[in-house]
Design brief:
This protein is of the alpha/beta class. The chain contains 18 helices and 13 strands. The structure holds flavin mononucleotide.
Length: about 500
């Protein structure tokens, strides 16, 4: 045998061994799906920062999530060191307009019981459903929860990983509007969502079926129910699930015929105005005993003014309101809708909150925020604005392996997260990825606690507006009160009683 033939043989043998190793190992989806060549991604990821620093983009440039933000999620979910060295690389002396600065207290708050608990439990400061005496009112155990993403837009293994991870982190898992599948049944507690398609809770004609919802809530750990009015990434738009995608499994979960196109119209058929919506909320809450909320992106403010006026007049209303920012994610949407329809979170939320607060409805309503809030600074900002609970979607996807390829609509997601094709989903091992989701949620809670302590508080919801301001150009800055339009210094905070209760709870072991 010549030298050349021997070397060739060795190379081929090495490739075969690496291929077997990559396919058999369960830690890295990319390697399982793309044996051997998948290693180049890790190599590029390793030297990417250096390359990008000089040639392509800096650490904060990429969208929707910058390299720094992704690195924080990845390292947190793997329980690696998520610190950054050498100091900020942001130009904080000449920042982009509206750059937030958190103003620490000279006397940080001492550690609380949650700091010493490895789950770093940070419950919500409000009891969901308490203001309207719902039978199954409860205090959400975690201020960070998994936002709505349906089985269909995400793969079965991804949903399994999220639900199992939610159980580990003690947070809630929102089903999204695609119904409650077998994949959702891993022990994680659930917020059941339905939209205009009423998937999983519809009769054969496609109309909302209350009895099916009651049965579903009784059969599963459904803690609350969310009526989806719209979502930031495609507000005001219906959807169409093509017949080819309506597999027997999806058909059974959604309650639709196999192989036939299935439309989700832009509007609901179970109600056509605000009074109808409020009636439906009460009907569902009475029948299930669960708190009921609405999810919406923010466009026309008139809706929120009329809604809150009718809430005052009738004494009824949703137990929680989820405000989704226009920068939010989706499996697929027209570019014009993603880029231009509905307000981004930082514009949207204060307008809605003010509308509630001006009618004194704010302390009795639980506010949920979503729209890139799965990172410590944006999360704290949202809590300061008045959110009580946060929903994270794409950050949760990243924690289970998403690499921001931004091709969810193609069915070719290389990490098996946002696709139904076995070619890709086979690589996603829910046992490993569920732990990563758990680690990520715990890390976010831990860092929120640290920020709260730095601001002199035992819980992030107790941090007031005076603790944040926004830098502008030419050494100017604007206060949060001015930016949010909050005239009352108590705006953004829970009621005095809720503040005292959560402070006591944080001081005692949970
Ligand atoms: C793949 C995917 C599917 C989604 N499906 C739903 C859905 O079924 N119902 C819904 O209300 N929002 C849905 N959303 C929106 C998210 O729940 C969330 O509101 C939005 O992405 C903002 O959160 P984020 O910035 O943390 O991703 C989806 C988002 C993604 C990325």
């Amino acid at each position: 045998m010549t030298w050349f033939a021997a070397i060739l043989l060795l190379v081929v043998a090495a490739i075969i061994l690496i291929t077997i190793h990559d396919v058999v190992q369960r830690k890295h989806t990319i390697l399982r799906n793309f044996p051997v060549i998948g290693h180049f991604r890790y190599l590029l990821e390793k030297i990417g920062p250096e390359l990008r620093q000089y040639i392509v983009t800096d650490n904060d440039e990429e969208r929707p999530f910058s390299r720094d933000e992704r690195r924080w999620v990845y390292t947190s979910s793997k329980r690696l060191n998520n610190y950054f060295g050498f100091g900020t690389d942001n130009d904080i002396e000449n920042p982009p307009a509206g750059y937030p600065i958190i103003k620490q207290s000279t006397f940080p708050a001492p550690a609380v019981a949650a700091d010493h608990d490895e789950l770093h439990p940070v419950p919500a400061a409000k009891v969901l459903g308490a203001a309207r005496n719902r039978k199954h009112a409860f205090r959400p155990e975690s201020i960070v929860n998994i936002s709505a993403m349906s089985f269909g837009s995400l793969s079965g293994p991804a949903i399994v990983a999220l639900n199992r991870g939610a159980r580990g982190a003690g947070c809630l898992h929102n089903t999204g509007e695609g119904g409650l599948s077998l994949h959702h049944q891993q022990g994680g507690e659930i917020i059941f969502q339905f939209g205009t398609g009423y998937f999983g809770v519809r009769d054969p004609d496609g109309a909302f079926d209350l009895a099916r919802l009651v049965d579903l809530a009784e059969a599963h750990p459904v803690k609350a129910i969310e009526i989806k009015l719209s979502q930031g990434a495609k507000a005001g738009l219906g959807g169409m699930l093509l017949g080819a995608k309506v597999t027997p499994e999806i058909a059974a979960i959604r309650g639709i015929p196999v192989g036939q196109d299935c439309a989700s119209p832009a509007s609901h058929t179970a109600f056509s105005d605000i009074d109808g919506l409020l009636e439906l909320v009460e009907t569902i809450a009475d029948a299930t005993g669960r708190p009921v909320g609405i999810k919406s992106a923010v466009g026309d403010l008139g809706f929120w003014q009329d809604l809150t006026d009718r809430m005052v007049a009738t004494g009824t209303g949703p137990d929680f309101v989820t405000v989704d920012g226009g920068e939010g994610g989706t499996g697929a949407a027209p570019l014009a809708f993603s880029d231009h329809v509905s307000l981004p979170f930082r514009h949207a939320f204060p307008r809605v909150y003010r509308t509630f607060a001006e009618r004194d409805l704010h302390t009795g309503t639980v506010f949920v925020g979503s729209g890139k809030l799965g990172l410590p600074t944006s999360a704290l900002q949202a809590l300061i604005m008045g959110c009580d609970v946060l929903g994270v979607a794409r950050e949760a996807m990243m924690s289970i392996g998403c690499i921001q390829a931004q091709i969810c609509e193609s069915g070719r997601c290389p990490t098996g997260v946002a696709t139904q094709r076995p070619r890709y989903t086979r690589g996603l091992d829910p046992a490993d990825k569920s732990v990563r989701l758990t680690n990520y949620i715990i890390s976010l809670r831990k860092e929120l606690l640290a920020l709260a302590h730095a601001c002199g508080q035992s819980h992030p919801a107790l941090v007031g507006m005076d603790r944040i301001e926004f830098l502008e150009d030419r050494w100017r800055s604007t206060s949060a009160a001015t930016i949010f339009g909050y005239l009352d210094p108590e705006f953004g905070l829970p009621s005095r009683t809720d503040r005292e209760d959560i402070d006591t709870l944080m001081q005692t072991a949970q």
